[in-house]
Amino acid sequence: FRASDALCYSKRIQAMSTLLRSLEFLGLSVWLGSDIFLSFVVAPGAFTVLASRDQAGALVGYSLTSMHLLGILCGLVILASRLLRMRTLASFAAPAALCVVLMMLLTTVSQIFVTPRMAELRARLGSIEATAADSPLLAAFGRLHAVSVTLESGVLLAGIAAMYLMVRELAVVR
User: Cβ neighbours of residue 23 under 8 Å, at least 6 residues apart?
Assistant: First the structure.
């Protein structure tokens, strides 16, 4: 009787561990997928299809904010699932978790400091298309855009590294 109880408990623990690990992979996949889709489909498509660069910029800015919020939520799901699965705060010191924390940090910096400043400059410029090329505001916007692209590239690279490290963790367990 006791051996069967222990076996049943062990199977439940294993099933819960599999579910939590699946949530980690799902969270990272959704985040990476949204980043890739925005960067390589939505942004280029908006600048190709929409009537003006100003409209395209507004769409990409709106989408970026949504992606940032989704990314931070995915990061929280990944880390919470990891903590529940491993039942130790030390799980946050693993390289895969540190990559997710870096992704969250870069995303938060972009959302709190860069995106609002770009929106403010865009509003002050009125129309980026109609602004003179030598405008100091346009130059500031360009610098912030470069920072934004660098931050998003960092998120993407950290996410790819996290995925690799999570798969490697799974291989070590087996």
Answer: 77, 78, 81
From the number of C-beta atoms within 10 Å of its C-beta (0-12, 13-18, 19+), residue 123 rates as: exposed
One-letter amino acid at 126 equals G
* pTM exceeding the 0.85 threshold for the entire prediction: yes
Q: What pLDDT shows up at residue 65?
A: 97
Within 8 A by CB and 6+ apart from 76, the residues are 104
Structural tokens at position 148: 């934004």
Q: State the pLDDT at residue 144.
A: 98
Q: How many CA atoms lie within 13 A of 42 on its CB side?
A: 18
Q: Which amino acid is at 143?
A: R
Under 8 Å CB-to-CB from 164, ≥6 apart: which residues? Answer: none
Can you list the residues of the chain whose pLDDT is less than 70? 1, 174
Contact present, 169 and 25 (Cβ < 8 Å): no
